[in-house]
Amino acid sequence: MKMQSYLGQARNTGSTKNGVHHWWHQRLTAIALVPLALWFVFSIIGLADADHAAYKDWLGDHGNMVFLCLFIFVMFYHAVLGLQVVIEDYVSCEAKKIFLLVFVKLIAALMGFSAITAVLRVAFGG
């Protein structure tokens, strides 16, 4: 039995000091997704009756291309941050946890790269 208060026992338990950094990234990406998602939804609603050429023209506009690439990047980064928290909290086996974290990051990077590459190819007429 320790002769130390609960506060004394809780102090110096070894913080990783990465929690606040991760928390801020998750909140900032969530805040960034609000205007980007609204822009995307209203843009697509505006193109509801458009044909393929209109979509290509819309994507050929540099502002739309940049916003769409930004939306894709922020969306995948936010998803990775959220899945990382879920995996770290609910997967107890360390080997499975490491595998899932690497797998999620790899899949998100591949999907994000593919999506941004597709946007750039359409935007630049490739």
From TrEMBL:
Metabolic or biological pathway, per its Swiss-Prot or TrEMBL entry: Carbohydrate metabolism; tricarboxylic acid cycle
Protein name in the entry: Succinate dehydrogenase hydrophobic membrane anchor subunit
Gene source species: Candidatus Terasakiella magnetica
Cofactor(s) demanded: heme
Membrane topology designation: Multi-pass membrane protein
Sequence intervals crossing the membrane: 28-45, 65-86, 98-124
NCBIfam families associated with the record: succ_dehyd_anc
Sorted UniProt keywords: Cell inner membrane, Cell membrane, Electron transport, Heme, Iron, Membrane, Metal-binding, Transmembrane, Transmembrane helix, Transport, Tricarboxylic acid cycle
GO CC term, one of those recorded: plasma membrane
PANTHER family xref list: SUCCINATE DEHYDROGENASE HYDROPHOBIC MEMBRANE ANCHOR SUBUNIT
A single GO molecular function term of this UniProt record: electron transfer activity
Keyword Transport: yes
Compartment annotation: Cell inner membrane
InterPro entries (alphabetical): SQR/QFR_C/D, Succ_DH_anchor, SuccDH_FuR_B_TM-su
Alphabetical GO biological process terms: cytochrome complex assembly; tricarboxylic acid cycle
Subunit structure: Part of an enzyme complex containing four subunits: a flavoprotein, an iron-sulfur protein, plus two membrane-anchoring proteins, SdhC and SdhD.
Gene it is expressed from: sdhD
Function of the molecule: Membrane-anchoring subunit of succinate dehydrogenase (SDH).
Cited Gene3D superfamilies: Fumarate reductase/succinate dehydrogenase, transmembrane subunit (1.20.1300.10)
